[in-house]
């Protein structure tokens, strides 16, 4: 049942592409930054609006940080197993890119893969034409091609980067992007980046095989132990149902399986800041450190009023920073594949003693769980209270009769962009009408989750879990002109259509 298209409705992507074929270059679209002939972009602000937004962010004389990222096939070692995958600069995760807020990142991508790719800078409020959205903000970079991303990084925080083409993210192509605050209040002695991933490449079916199986079986029917039944033994109350549709053969913490965990060394009594990034394609993780509590200080890079919990769940694409005052010993840092079988593991060591077992299950995993509703944006990043100028409904469905996943009843190729105007306060009411959770991610902005009472002041985030049959409102300041993807960060849902565009119009 597709919504009817009334003549005044904005054109869908498919209609625009069709129009472009007819009129060739005659379809004037202001936001077009692609040099590729025959490709149309949704009507939006001119390239000059994007340039002006960048100029407002750029400080005169801002330092430029240069990095080189080569995407290429590599061989890595997973606890003694040699695995061929794709990665940046030969490592999984890729190299940490680190700079200060207000500096300019100049990142040269060298594509040595056999297929086109892009880099998306997840969570960064950057200039639209550097966002890495293929065929929307740039033509994908072909095999052997080079592309230089250059943009001001405005806000401090924990971000990450990954490709935005096909199923590449479900290989080893991801890395942390850390933006330091020149006025960092501190409050910790040491920090550690923790990147979580679900892994199949080279040890299980390929991402393409997984996608084909999902397409073939459609819906949520259980088969081959791959799809997990609704309400079954693996169901997760935190996710409101199943943990996912794919059981991965391994879960990695900083590129290592639990039989060969990385060790984080510190001294007893030190305050350790963890910057945790869920880079998985299809898995949420429940994180805990045995014998310790986590004081959550940032959600998706931006500060929140501190909340102390035993454990927290990260959806795909989400980040949390937490500070921990360390005890004396060797402790399991466990990231349980939420609603699935298996876990990733690290060891936090402040003294000698035996290494925790690969299957260690600290009691904190069943302790007090962080709830989204208890987080409040720090006043310095909270959006000033304002009534929305415009509200868009974002209805998530799919997974029942076929393998399509949709937003507002449409897959991405046929999506009708959600229009906004610069300067507006925009509310997105995200309603999940499916039986799976979806981590919904918006490019180029950090929205503010609205509290249940509608009185604003939830956390600022760029990715938020919406549970089955639940609804969530998020508000954003439309201050970053361009065409921005809005999608589920379950890679297989995104590829099966669950993506649309937030589109600035003039
Ligand atoms: Cu992290 Cu559109 O993605
Ligand atoms: Cu989804």
Describe this structure in words.
The chain has 506 residues and is mainly beta. 8% of the residues lie in helices and 37% in strands. It is built from 4 helices and 30 strands. The strands form 6 sheets. A 6-stranded mixed sheet has the order 10-9-12-17-14-15, with no helix packed on it. β1 (64-78) and β2 (81-88) form a beta hairpin. The radius of gyration is 22 Å and the shape is globular. Mean pLDDT is 90; it is low at 1-9, 20-43 and 221-231. It binds CU-O-CU linkage and copper (II) ion. CU-O-CU linkage (C2O) is lined by residues 120, 122, 162, 164, 317, 441, 443, 485, 487, 489.
The total strand number stands at 30
| Strand line-up across the major sheet | 10-9-12-17-14-15
Cofactors and ligands? CU-O-CU linkage, copper (II) ion
Outline the low-pLDDT stretches: 1-9, 20-43, 221-231
Percent helix, as a range, is: under 10%
User: Globular, elongated, flat, extended or rod-shaped: what is the shape?
Assistant: globular
Number of helices: 4
Through-space gap between termini? 31 Å
Summing up helix and strand content along with how strands pair, one would put the structural category as: mainly beta
Mean pLDDT reading: 90
Proportion of residues in extended strands: 35-45%
SSE blueprint and pairings:
Elements: H1 13-23, H2 47-57, E1 64-78, E2 81-88, E3 97-100, E4 104-111, E5 120-122, E6 146-152, E7 157-162, E8 175-180, E9 190-199, H3 207-217, E10 250-253, E11 263-265, E12 271-278, E13 285-289, E14 294-299, E15 302-309, E16 312-314, E17 319-325, E18 330-337, E19 343-349, E20 390-398, E21 405-407, E22 418-421, E23 425-432, E24 438-442, E25 447-450, E26 457-461, E27 463-466, E28 471-477, E29 483-488, H4 491-495, E30 499-505
Parallel strand pairs: 1-4, 3-8, 9-12, 11-19, 20-23, 22-30
Antiparallel strand pairs: 1-2, 4-6, 5-7, 7-8, 9-10, 12-17, 13-16, 13-18, 14-15, 14-17, 18-19, 20-21, 23-28, 24-27, 24-29, 25-26, 25-28, 29-30
The structure holds CU-O-CU linkage and copper (II) ion.
Copper (II) ion binds next to loops.
């Amino acid at each position: 049942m597709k919504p009817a298209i009334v003549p005044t409705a904005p054109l869908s992507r498919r209609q625009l592409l069709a129009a472009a074929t007819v009129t060739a270059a005659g379809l004037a679209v202001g936001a077009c930054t692609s040099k590729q002939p025959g490709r149309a972009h949704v009507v939006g602000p001119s390239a000059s609006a994007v340039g002006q937004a960048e100029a407002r962010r750029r400080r005169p004389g801002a330092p430029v940080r240069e990095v080189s990222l080569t995407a290429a096939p590599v061989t890595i070692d997973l606890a003694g197993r040699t695995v061929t995958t794709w990665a940046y600069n030969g490592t999984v995760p890729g190299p940490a890119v680190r700079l200060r807020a207000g500096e300019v990142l100049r990142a040269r991508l060298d594509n040595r893969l056999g297929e086109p790719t892009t880099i998306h800078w997840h969570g960064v409020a950057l200039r639209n034409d550097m966002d890495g959205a293929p065929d929307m903000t740039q033509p994908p970079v072909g095999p052997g091609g080079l592309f230089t991303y250059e943009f001001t990084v405005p806000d401090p925080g924990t971000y990450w980067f990954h490709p935005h083409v096909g199923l590449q993210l479900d290989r080893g192509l991801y890395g942390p992007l850390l933006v330091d605050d020149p006025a960092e209040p501190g409050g910790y002695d040491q920090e550690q980046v923790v990147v979580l991933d679900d892994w199949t490449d080279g040890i299980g079916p390929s991402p393409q095989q997984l996608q084909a199986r999902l397409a073939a079986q459609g819906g949520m029917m259980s088969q081959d132990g791959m799809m997990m039944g609704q309400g079954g033994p693996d169901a997760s109350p935190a996710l409101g149902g199943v943990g996912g549709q794919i059981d991965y053969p391994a879960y990695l913490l900083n590129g290592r399986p639990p039989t060969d965990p990385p060790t984080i060394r510190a001294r007893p009594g030190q305050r350790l800041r963890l910057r945790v990034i869920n880079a998985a394609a299809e898995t949420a993780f429940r994180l805990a450190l045995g014998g310790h509590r986590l004081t959550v200080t940032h959600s998706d890079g931006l500060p929140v009023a501190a909340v102390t919990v035993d454990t927290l769940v990260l959806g795909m694409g989400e980040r949390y920073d937490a500070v921990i005052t360390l005890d004396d010993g060797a402790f399991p840092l466990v990231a349980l594949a939420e609603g699935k079988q298996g876990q990733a593991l690290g060891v936090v060591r402040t003294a000698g003693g035996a290494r925790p077992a690969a299957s260690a299950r600290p009691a904190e995993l069943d302790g007090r769980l962080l709830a989204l509703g208890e987080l409040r944006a720090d006043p310095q990043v909270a959006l000033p209270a304002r009534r929305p100028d415009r509200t868009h409904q974002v209805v998530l469905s799919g997974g029942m009769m076929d393998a399509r996943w949709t937003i507002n009843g449409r897959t991405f190729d046929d999506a009708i962009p959600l229009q906004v105007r610069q300067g507006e306060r925009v509310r997105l009411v995200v309603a999940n009408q499916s039986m799976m959770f979806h981590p919904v991610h918006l490019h180029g902005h950090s929205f503010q989750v609205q509290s249940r009472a509608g009185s604003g002041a939830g956390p600022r985030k760029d990715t938020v879990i919406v549970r089955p049959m639940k609804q969530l409102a998020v508000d954003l300041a439309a201050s970053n002109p361009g065409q921005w993807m809005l999608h589920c960060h379950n890679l297989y849902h995104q590829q099966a259509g669950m993506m649309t565009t937030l589109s600035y119009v003039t």
